[in-house]
Amino acid sequence: MTREVFISYSQPDRDCAFELVARLEGEGIPCWIAPRDIAPSADWAAEIMDAISAARAMILVFSASSNQSPQVRREVERAVHKQLSVLPFRIEEVLPSKSLEYFLSAQHWMDAFPPPREPHYARLCIYLKAKLAASTGAQTAAQPPGPPMQSASRPVTVVQLFDAAELQRIERHLAGYIGQLAKHLVKSAALHAASIEDLIARLAMELDTETDRYEFTRQCRSGAPRT
């Protein structure tokens, strides 16, 4: 089943997040939320990345706790990078930290205080239904009238350009900036990169600041084999 909405939250706000999911799904809006939708043996970071890519919107349960959560920041960063609509559902009167403000400054906010939260849940359901319906209509209108022309299929040969040690070294450098997501990003980028320089450049673009991108590139190039 397609999960329309990704729910991002910090562990202390778990009860609120799952209340919100129950309310949305009761209105016919399927949600993706961890750990419920992560298989026991799955790669946690990869599952989160894939869920964000597949979603049509993200709801951020925003509080003092999520405001300071590195995991929440990474999820919001990925959503913005994927041009996913993010709606902060603010359950406490807290202003975003500088790291989150960078990603949320252009987003709409919805305040969910003071309690009770039920009226705020109802308002969110109405908003999401309208937004998702409008998005579906826009996608349908943008589709061409007929199926696109397909070229004749031919076998594709995948060439492994990088050895495992090389990828692990780059992954370690990237993990110093973004943590566990590094493994998934390196694996994905390596499938498309044409050279070691291309791989490093693709991964550098995942970082927030020019300083981080420069330093990551310098670290990766140090001792890297020529291509």
What features would you describe in this structure?
- With 227 residues, the protein is α/β, with parallel strands linked by helices.
- It has a five-stranded parallel β-sheet with strand order 2-1-3-4-5.
- It contains ten helices and five strands.
- The chain folds into two domains: 5-140, Rossmann fold; 164-221, no CATH class.
- The protein has helices at residues 14-26, 44-54, 64-67, 70-81, 98-104, 118-142, 164-178, 181-190, 196-204, 210-221, and strands at 5-8, 31-32, 57-62, 85-90, 110-111.
- α4 (70-81) runs parallel beside α5 (98-104), α7 (164-178) crosses α8 and α9 (196-204) packs antiparallel against α10 (210-221).
Quick summary:
With 227 residues, the chain is α/β, with parallel strands linked by helices. It has helices at 14-26, 44-54, 64-67, 70-81, 98-104, 118-142, 164-178, 181-190, 196-204, 210-221, and strands at residues 5-8, 31-32, 57-62, 85-90, 110-111.
